[in-house]
Amino acid sequence: MKARIVRNKYLVVGLAIGLIIAIGAGLVVSMAVTGAGNTKGQAHKVTGQSVTAVKAAPRASSPAPAQAPAQKTGQVASQPAPTAAGEAVAYLQGPPKDDGFVRRGDIYIANLDGSGERQITTSGDVTDFRPSPSGNKIAFLKTRNTGEYDGPPQFVLGVFLMNADGTNLRQLPFEGSSQYCAAPVFDPNEKYLYIARKGDVAKDPQFDSEASYTLVFERYDIDANTVEPVYPRAGMFPETHVSSLCLNPGGTELYFTLVGSQWPGSEVPVLNLGRPATEAPFMAERQGNPGYTGFSLMSFSKNGDYVSYNRDVAEPATDPSQGPILKRYSCLRPVSGGTETVINESEAGHPYAQGAISRLEFSGSDAATYFFSKVTGAGSHSNNDIEFYKGSINNTGQEPTGLHVNCMDAIWHLIKI
Hints:
By secondary structure, the chain is mainly β. It contains one helix and 26 strands.
């Protein structure tokens, strides 16, 4: 009897142990299945992200069918500064040889750290351009110069719009014989493009020459494919032209740099884009002793509080027998006025020499951050070797980003990627 009880006791214990093992095994299997399901879900999520990235990549990296030889992009400076997330540089590069009075080239895009250079256009006749705020589109001019003098383009073949990777190219419905003065600029919502062009010309009957012309501002509706007049500015002297257009971040004011006949006699008026549009002075040229002071507007900070510009001044020469010499100051200033911050000043008499700032543009991602290009060497066909730096309104430090390119006439813009 005692032996049977003992056997029964061991039997109960054995059954209990077996039950515990079975339950444990079930839990392990359940956990394994659950874990496998989770792992599968995670893998699907990562795969989805990879597919999205691959789909998005062509906009940033697809070159035009014909590949250009690699230029100086990609030379990474020592200890490059961290750059604003999602921004690159779109720039214009002319041919490697000097083609006389013809000033045109192609659009390239490169990352601010010097990587990922790609050629966007291959026609070789782009003279100016502007990316859209989202970075999805680029508007540009294709211009033929008469070759009469090395100045503003005289005849324009057309205004074009394309995706940032060079696809979906189309010509906009502007008069082909008109003389466009500056690249179109997008409004913040990318519904409109604003253009400034040369309109009606008044002739001098005595000399049968151009006496004056009307500068016409127009607005192009991208979806409707229609053009409407915005503002006519009559009485423009033949030697006067617009070198740049710039919209404030709110899209309510259009600023334009007006270059006069007495360099550096340039000014920056502003158009209030109401109906009707009205004009007011923003930065007026000043004639003093010994010469003119001119301004060239470049960009607005993201919040619209600051503006960047070049201030060109004719200063007295060291030798009294010589005339005034030109000096360039690259500056920041609150839009409402106030203290001017000089970021860089050129060597007297050499505003485009090595070390001068050729352009300064605010980041579209951070209101306090800006990027600028410094001339590192002169080339041909108005091409200069330039190196990019990062700065901030909050401090005076200047850090290289790592991008070094050959650029025509300092025509470059930040572009979102």
